[in-house]
Give the backbone structure.
Amino acid sequence: MESNWAAEHLQVIRTLMERSAVYRRALAPVMIFNGSMGSIGALIGWGADIDTPRGFIIYWAIIGLLAIGGSLFLVRRQAFKESERFWSSPRQRFRS
C-alpha cells in the first residue's frame, strides 16, 4: 500500500515538473516581449511628457494593445511551429 502511494505521488510530481518546463518554455518569450514593451513604453512616455489624464490613458491603452497583439502573434507562431492548434480545447468547446 505504501509503495503504491509513493509511486502515485512521484508520478504526480513528475507530471507537474514536466508541465512547468513546458509553460516556462512557452511563456518566456511572451514575458520578455511584454516587459520590453512596458519598459520602452515608459521611456517613450517619459520623453513625450504626457500631461493630461486622457493622453496618459490613451497612450497606455495603445501600448497595452500592442503588447496583447505581439503576445498573440508569439503564441500563434509557437503553436504553428509545434503543429498544434492555436486555440486550446476548452476554447473550442465554448465556441460550439
The helical segments are 2-48, 53-81, 89-95.
